[in-house]
Structure formats: structure tokens, C-alpha cells
Amino acid sequence: MTQPFEIACDESGSEGEKLIGGNTVVFAHASIRLDIESAADCIQEVRNRAPSPTTEYKSGVIRRKKHLNALKWLLGPSSPLHGNAHVYLIDKTFFAISRFIDLLADQDSRAMAGTLYREGEHTFGPDRWNAFLESFNDLMRTKNGRGPGASVDSVFKRIDTLRRAAPRSRAGEIMNLLWESRSDIDSFRARLPTLNPLFPAIIQAAVYWGEAGKPVSVVHDRQTLLTQERIDELKETRAAEGRLAGLRLVDSRLDPRIQVADLLAGPARKIAEDELTHQGDAELTALLRPYVDAFSVWGDDRSWSLLAPPTRGWAAPAVG
Fold first, then answer.
1. What are phi and psi of 73, to 5 degrees?
2. Which of 68, 150, 242, 275 fits as disulfide partner to 303, beta carbons 3.0 to 4.6 Å?
3. In this structure, are residues 261 and 31 in contact, taking their beta carbons and an 8 Å threshold?
4. Closest to 289 (Cα-Cα) out of 318, 266, 313
């Protein structure tokens, strides 16, 4: 049996299943393939280039403007991360819309999600559109009756308002289909996969690093949501195609590989978020591109054309 090799992972932008109206609009999950000694050397080099008195060196330090050159080194070709690191990006709004549109169980669901992502705000107005997204997100988050959330009636009242506001638009037609699916909402909520982007991100890390059929073992920064039950589910899921051989949680202070993954995840999220919101730094975006997973969940064509990995070409973003 092939011995699994180990990758270390950390994330940035995690807010659980709250995808709309949170503090971040992008989720980034970084995975690295370095041994402990190489990771420790990397941390020390970053400290030398961007000094900080902090005991545990976190990504917030290297993201400061005064340490920009250190960040460029970390992402650049002379860094130990070059060829040994990977980032899976998730545009939270597109991810949420894609999950919601699964209610229709339609073969064109990805195309419809793209239509709503591109045209929803313009068609219905930002206030009404964002209010709908937040309410639907709340409804899906409380599918097991936890927390206040939004009621089915209140959410579908918003859908009714939107479908009537622009009945002849493409976005309005999709909202009408959602309205007609009201009778399916209870069964949909019961079978809906988690809205937390962390879980598909871990699966994708195993898929990416196990491309040659190798089993992958993941060392991850501690997460309260990664219970043993959830870990077992991740290992068993068919999406990982048997490549996730193990997952153990480690205190980042005890493993420099996790710290390096954090150093990559934080800037990656910020760079991608800036690009998505038309505030991108062309040099930093270009440095990030080689690390980005071609199957990241991304709805915006313009920013994706700049973020997509150059060596593997553009691939239609897939929802995990």
C-alpha cells in the first residue's frame, strides 16, 4: 500500500456557514508540502525580511504595507513555497447562490447561478437583492432549527417580490422557478450539503495533491467545526476519491508548517478579494496566480481571468 504523504493546511476568511453579510467576501484555503525544518526556515526568513516581536508569526504581519517586499518574496519564485503550495479560492456570494440554486435540481443550475450572480443586483437593486441573499443564507444555516434564522414564509415572500419586479428578465425568470419550487424546500434543506466552505476546500486539497493517485494525509490548524464525525465524513466522501487518508488537527504554535500555510492563506484571500472588488494590485495578483486552484469557486469573469492559474488555463469554476 502506498504510504500517504502529508500536507499542512490553514484558511482565511472562515465565518462558518455565514456566506452573506459577513466580514469577508472571499474564503481562501492554503495547503503546503514542506517538511517541518523547511517550514521553520521559511518562517525565519520571513521574520528576517519583516521583523515582528510576535511569538507566533501570523499573516496579518506580512500583509502590512511596510512588509510588502517580504510578501513578494514569499509568493515569488525564490520562495520555498514555489511548487510546494496551493490555494483554493471561494467567492462566498457565488458559492451561496450556487448552493441556493440547487433547489431547482436542474442540469443548467450552474448557468443559472452565474446569471443570478451577474445580474441579480442590477435587476432587483442592491438593497432588495442583498436582503434576499442574507435571508436565504439564514434559512439554509438553520435547517436543523438552530438559531433564529429566517422563516420559509419570509424568504419566499422576498422571492415573490423579486419575481414580480422583473418578470421578463433572465434573473426574474429564475426567481419564478425558485418560487415554484416552494413545495420542495423542506426536503431540500434536509439534504443540502453544508454551506461551510472549509469542507469542500479540504476535499479539493486532497484531490489536488493526490492527482497521481497518491493518498494524502492532512495536518490542519485546529477548527471547532472539524469534529471527529465530520472528519470521518470527509474521509469517506466520494468527492475525495479515496485520496484523503487521514486528517489530524494541530495547534499552529506547535507546527511551523501550519504557520506557513497561514502566511499564504491570509494574503491570498486579501489579494483575491481586492481583485474581485476592483482594488487589485497587478503585481501581487500575478504572483498569486501560480498557486490558485483551477477549480476554485468563482463567479466573476473579469477577476477570474487575472487570478486563474496560467499554466493550466481557465476552467469553469466548480462548486464542491
1. -65, -45
2. 275
3. yes
4. 313
What residue type is 10 in one-letter code?
Answer: D
Per-residue model confidence as pLDDT tens for the chain (320 residues): 567 789 999 999 999 999 999 999 999 999 999 999 999 999 999 999 999 888 888 899 999 999 999 999 999 999 999 999 999 999 999 999 999 999 987 768 889 999 999 999 999 999 999 999 999 999 988 654 454 467 899 999 999 999 999 999 999 999 999 999 999 998 988 888 789 999 999 999 998 998 877 888 999 998 887 888 888 877 776 455 567 888 899 988 899 999 999 999 999 999 999 999 999 999 999 999 999 999 999 999 999 999 999 864 333 344 33
Tell me phi and psi for residue 116, to 5 degrees: -65, -40
Q: CA-to-CA distance for 203 and 2, rounded, in angstroms?
A: 19
